[in-house]
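ok trying this again, last paste got cut off
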Amino acid sequence: MTDFENQFLDKVDGKKAIIAVAGLGYVGLPLALSFAEAGYQVIGLDVDGEKVRKITRRESYIGHISKTRLKDSAALFSATTDFQLAEDADAVVICVPTPLTRNQEPDLSYVEGTLASLLPYFREGQLLSLESTTYPGTTNEILRPPLEERGFQMGKNFFLVYSPEREDPANPDFQTQTIPKVLGGCTPACARCGLALYGKVVARMVPVSSPEAAELTKLLENIYRAVNIGLVNELKLVADGMGLDIHEVIRAAATKPFGFTPFYPGPGIGGHCIPIDPFYLTWKARAYGVHTRFIELAGEINSSMPRYVADKLVRALNAQGLPLKGSKVLLLGMAYKKNVEDMRESPSLEVLRLLSELGALIDYSDPHVPILPPVRKGRFDLKSVELTPENLASYDAVVMLTDHKAFDHDLILKHSRLLIDTRGAFPPGPTVVKS
């Protein structure tokens, strides 16, 4: 054990370590607050000046992060756009997006750009942790070489780990501190330092043999969900053709106390992880001559669901003698999951785009998204519509896409002339069409 390792561990144990978190989004901000709440001085780093200004004013820009948490952490948590302050930190954690390119290949530009911004300020004795979801090999192939080129020796005078995030925004049952955390270090000493650091804020650490094992663990978790969602989405098509309610079938199957985990269909998949992460593995697998057919098929099924919803609406309107073109349609929910404001890769946006292109007159209602900002799928210049009996009755069709708890289901059911239900949120009825 080197002097640098001993010094790092002593600082962590004595809560004298300073933590820098680069990227203050849905992963970085909760993590930064968790370290501050555990008694560590935390420096938040972000290129977005507005985020930094809001944190300085103790204003939250993430729905499930309260102002109270930000105010209570004021003495220990500050934010800045000046990455030079990373030099003061003993540990630096990177929590930035890892999207896809237009060719559906991994885009590590945020990780690489953040590393480039931090690199001039790294010093001996620091620990660097990557939390962004990525393909196996990223930590050792992308982060490690630039550090070693600057003279750092992994496990001796610098420590490098990969520890994937496991955030589930707005889930009241799990917080950063209570979700077991996987970690793989580039060397045993790196792993020891990483486990010691995160162990101060996370109840259970799960060490694995290498960063590659931790990177693949994260992909497995999300691909497992993507494949199973693809399965139930395909079964929804089968059930629909048979005149059966897939949600009734899933509820019945879920009573089996072993060997079955319920997954639920919808208008597609969204968020930063599930629609994206499978492509990280399929891309990397090609380098080993492996064609991940099963994973890719699930992706195709999930990607087709917004068009299925649009087609279902067309048929339902036709049954009432109405064309889609010129019909007034209200979409309920723009966020990718219920009770959050996060619209990243939301299938609702794809449904909106498809219906708009087909000539429908679209409005939306979402209590978490008052104004629809420009997104990757386009600019729509829409504001959330208030749900009133008069408003609901004025639409030819209402489409439930994201089942927020704030929606008044009785009001929606009573006053909608035609209701397309993609979430199994409503009981069967003369105006309800399951999709």
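PB: full thing came through this time. The chain has a mean pLDDT of 95.
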